[in-house]
Amino acid sequence: MSGLAMNTLTLVFIIALTTSAVMRAWLTARQIRYVGLHRNTVPEAFIACIGPTAHRKAADYAITKSRFSLIGLALDLMLALLWTLGGGLAFLDAAWQHAGLNLLNTGVLVIASYALINALIELPLSVYATFGIEARFGFNRTRVKTYVLDLLKLMLLAAILGVPLLFAALWLMSRSGQLWWLYVWMLWLSFSLILTWVYPVLIAPWFNKFSPLADAALKQRIELLLQRCGFTSRGIFVMDGSTRSAHGNAYFTGYGHNKRIVFFDTLMDKLMPEEIEAVLAHELGHFRLKHVIQRLAVTALLSLVGLGILGWLAGSAWFYHGLGVPHPSAYMALLLFTLLAPPFLFLLEPLSSAWSRRHEFQADAYASRQTDATALIHALVKLYRDNATTLTPDPLHSAFHDSHPPALLRIARLQKLAGMASP
Hints:
This protein has helices at residues 2-37, 52-83, 88-97, 103-136, 144-175, 180-207, 216-229, 265-270, 273-288, 291-313, 317-321, 330-345, 349-370, 373-386, 395-401, 407-418, and strands spanning 210-212, 236-239, 250-253, 260-264. By secondary structure, the protein is mainly alpha-helical. The chain has a four-stranded mixed beta sheet with strand order 1-2-4-3.
């Protein structure tokens, strides 16, 4: 059976990997063509507030990013094949085996080396995206020093947080019997919840400065909104997003006593107080409608299913042989699964995107009940314009990749709630 299973798995992996890559490339080509066709025509609903120049910039920005993503797609396909059937993981494993370390230390070093090599290979793409594309369209404000420091901080965090987690997971896989996948899931879930809780106060300040909201009138407006929404937080903060990008955003983070409301300083500079209030009401809608809890629950369930499948695959020699690894091990099972799963998860992306867009519509409706829907419309239009968000994405590409509804559809729904004819 092992030879047949090996050949079958190899074939299935190649078909799934190439099919998902071809599908992604086709969707990207559709996006480029569709946005290009509508580049010179501002949608009628936005003519009064977004001019032809801003619309063309958004189209060019979307097309440039889409074309660039094809390079990343080709690189991902090549790396997946090289690491597996090309013998990359087998070579890396053999190299660390020669060091004479125990199995646990070897596993951590193999996974860490794999992650580091991938990061170095993908680094030029990240550099070009930041200092090439983002700079060309006037969004990048990251200095080289800041970029390098961010990378070093991320590496340090990976060492402080990721290495102990890896040790614990691999130890459980080798010592917990057939139900190891259940214990690893419990470990991962606990780690994720703790990380989410401490992130606002211990991790985020490593990368950005967070200052208490100084505008007294705006603060009072927001505090009244929080009271109406039944939301408590440890503070309202303004983040120095302008040190890295001209893009604007707002979010709330953490849970329990560590909940924080965060506005990018770039957002504060672009929106009126009533528009800021409406944007925050939308974010609070996600909290009040339990979207965050729902997403955490689904993520936890999917990870449990995934680890259960891995628990079955890890005990079969054909799983390793079919993906180019001659010697089974716990750490190789983890690495192979991270390479095997994405092509199959691609099929779930439209469901995930549709669910996310449904949540966005619900949060918009919630915001329109708590604040003025007209203010939210004006805020979104400004954000579309200033962030160069294309108003005319390809519908099929959007169905796969966009977590937020297309601008035309989202604004039209808000107009109904506000009783307006145009933004």
